[in-house]
Structures are given as C-alpha cells and as structure tokens.
Amino acid sequence: MNRKPPLKPTRREFLSTTSAIGGSLIIMGTKATAGIKGANDRVRIAVAGLNGRGQSHIDGWMKADNVEIAYAIDPAENVLQKRLGSIEKKADGKFTTKGVADFRDALDDKSLDAISVATPNHWHSLITIRAAQAGKHVYVEKPMSHDVAEGRVAVEAQKKYGVVIQHGTQRRSDAGVAGLHEALKSGELPRLKIAYGYCCKPRGGIGSKSPGTPPSNLNWDLWKGPAVIDQYHANYHPYNWHWFWETGNGDLNNQGTHQLDVARWAIDDDQTHPVRAMAIGGRFQWDDQGETPNTMFSMAEYPNGQMVFFNVRNVNYKDYKRQVYNEYYLEDGSVITGESHYQILRPGAAKPEGLKLSKGKVTPGGNWNSFIAAVRANDPSMANGNVLDAHYGCVLGHLMNNSYRLGHEVPFSASAGQFGDNQDATLHFNKLHSIMADGVGVSEKDAKYRVGPMLTFDPKTETHTGDYATEANRLLKNPSNPGFKIPELSEV
C-alpha cells in the first residue's frame, strides 16, 4: 500500500475539528461539536486493532442499538479479511464495513462519528489524540497511554476538542463498585487507608524468537508505528508484545489496569497522582526473552497519606490461586473484599459480614452502550471512565513500572523489600515472597529480585523530583519514529 505522510493534522482537518456543527456543549472550558443529532440516529464507528480484544469490540458494537461498524482497521491483511467476513455475516445486509490498514483513512471520513481502539498499547494515545483532532469520539482500550507524557497530551486534546473519550475499564460501568467508592468517600464507611489491587492470573513463558523478516501479510511499518524497534521477531505479533517495554507495559498495565483503576477510584476525589511510588519483582520461572516482570509488589502514596498496593503474579504451578480483584483496608482495621457485592471483616470479628450499600452513579448500559449514549448526547461527562480518570489510573501504573525498570538486583529473599517503616508494605510483600518461595519454588541461590527506588513525583508538573529524578524523567516519554510522533502539548 502507499505510505501515508507523517501524522500531522492538515489545515482541512484542523478546520473540520474546530468548526461548530449544530449545537454545542461546554466541557472543561471548550466546545464539543455535535455530531449525532438525535437518540435514534445511527452511530458510525471504526474499530482499530482486530485481534483479541478487537473481536470483543466488534461484538459489543454489533449488539448496540443502531450502531454501524463503518471501518475495520488492521495492518495484518489476513486478520483484516477474517474480521470483515465475520462482520459482514453478522451485519446481514444492515451496513457495509470498509477494511483499511491505516486508521487515518477512517479519520478522513467526515461522516464517521467515533473510533474504537484495540491496538497494541503503543498506539493507544496517538490514535486517541489524532481522532480528537479530527472531531471523532474515542473508546480506547486500557491502558489509554503507553507513557506519562502522551497521556497528558490525550487529556489536553479532549479539553480542546470536546469529544467523548471513554477508557476500556469496564468496572467503571458497575454501579456496585461505584456505590462502594461513594460510601468510602462520604463517611458512611471508615476512611480508606490502602486500596489494594491484584493481577494474579496463570501465564506461561513465551520462549525466544530470532530476528527475522515480517510475514508478507503484515505491514510491519504500520504495526510498529511509534515504537522504536530494531528488528521484527515473531514474539511481537500477535499478542506477546505485552511483555516488551517498546510496545507493552507488562501485566501491571495490561489486565492490571482494571484493578489499578479501581484502586485509584477509591482514593479521595481531590487526589490526582501519587507523590511516591516504588516496585520490587522479577521475571521468575521462565527462561524467555520477555522484558516485563511476571511477579511484582508495588506501592504508591498520595499527598493525603492514602496508599495503593499492587500485586502481579503471573507464574503457574500446582494449586495456583487466581486473584484478579481488589481489597480495601480501612483506618479502623476493617477489610472489605468482593466486587460489586461486598463483605467487610471488622476488627475483632470472627468472620466477615455482608455489606449493604446503595448503587452508585454510572451511565447505564454497560461499557459499550454507555459510550454510545454519551456520543449521542455529545456529552463527555457521561463517559464511564473519562479521559482524566484514565490518565490518573495509567500514570499510577507507569510510575510503578518505572521504579522497577530503574531497580537493581538483590538476592531473592524476604529481606529484599525496602519499604522503610511501612509495616503494611512489608507484610504484604512477605506474603508474595512466601508464595514465590514455597509455592513456585524460587530459591535464593538461583534467582534475584529487582528492587526499584522510591521515586518522588510532583502531581502538578507530572515530573519526578529528588533522587533518581534525572533517570526517572527520561522514562516519562518514550522515543518514537518519524511520522508517528506524539504531538507536543503546544501542537494539540
């Protein structure tokens, strides 16, 4: 195919995104163009990234009322054709979907209302930003950003162009989860001390793949896009890109983004970013070429003293306990567990009791239909998981990952955790260590932990301060290839 010019908005694109069409909505000081005229009008959406999660996007939009999948987008021709056939069969003549390799071909269509992003992580923000500049609403998979800096640009793009941006964190559409967090913040429950998230699901190693030539049906230049990668190998496509820093963020900001977002959601509303964050972990059990940790304990502290803990454990062994959920530790010693429906173990109680709470405020319809409702209303405030919530939750994970990446190796032992006088962190790290030592069988003689520094962070400037600031600030923005650069804030 012919290569597109660099990703820079043309004058026509700029004018089309700043002109008013019909009514308008004031959102954070800016006007949003009204693309959908009424609740009964068809929403035309493009789906970018058709493997794995992209199939879920297709299924979700196909079930939504009066939604047309106008474009299917993927740089792998075999995947694109397979999905086009599936969409055509399900559409049953109601609409025709155009297949393209480059998302910019879809954004050029003035009649397109929205784009749904299910690409690898390194593409999420760039498509989100360019879509906003083209006046298109965006449903973007988690994590919205691959690094801290590009997440901020996405926030500013939403502010300027007023489009709906909804993050693919489905628990934001759960009124039960919302109700618990409202109760924690209203004083109905004792004050939150620690919000704890787990991403512990069994996975295996990915082996090692030698550098080689990309398959003929894959447009490799388009697939890697912004990611600076020296050479193709078969572990990048279609799924294992998650475990390389150039393209993914490990399971902390993959599956873990859901539980990280829930944990941050529970923190007081006036808190944005943590002021301190650190992580310890490693890549145990597997002998492969993956870079991200499969085992991690991390912590972050907010200005008000509330904390988020997180546990990644993706190894596999006999009697493995899958844990993909959240816990809440309160200042009075109570512990809340569950998801949507909860139990509380109060201090001194022999067993937990059911926790009866009112449902919280969410836009109804689940994650798919709530987005369509927000698009039809042209109201970004209706998004279940808006651009700011997405940014704050993603940054939390990025800071933890960056601490890990700057870490140094120490012997695998319970004394490896360096948490100062934080007894809670020591306790929970020791639980993880016991599982790895006794359950997995990791031994001190043949394994090491990577211990990250305690990074300090300024929530207002979104930069690191203090020790390791120079090294940590380099990780706030990934390098990118010419033609696929994230715009500077001044260019939004």
UniProtKB/TrEMBL annotation:
PROSITE patterns: TAT. Pfam families: GFO_IDH_MocA (PF01408), GFO_IDH_MocA_C3 (PF22725). Residues 233-323 form the GFO/IDH/MocA-like oxidoreductase domain. Gene3D superfamilies: Dihydrodipicolinate Reductase, domain 2, NAD(P)-binding Rossmann-like Domain. SUPFAM superfamilies: Glyceraldehyde-3-phosphate dehydrogenase-like, C-terminal domain, NAD(P)-binding Rossmann-fold domains. It comes from the Bacteria. InterPro entries: Gfo/Idh/MocA-like_OxRdtase_N, Gfo/Idh/MocA_oxidrdct_glycsds, GFO_IDH_MocA-like_dom, NAD(P)-bd_dom_sf, TAT_signal. Residues 43-168 form the Gfo/Idh/MocA-like oxidoreductase N-terminal domain. This is Inositol 2-dehydrogenase/D-chiro-inositol 3-dehydrogenase. The gene is iolG_7.
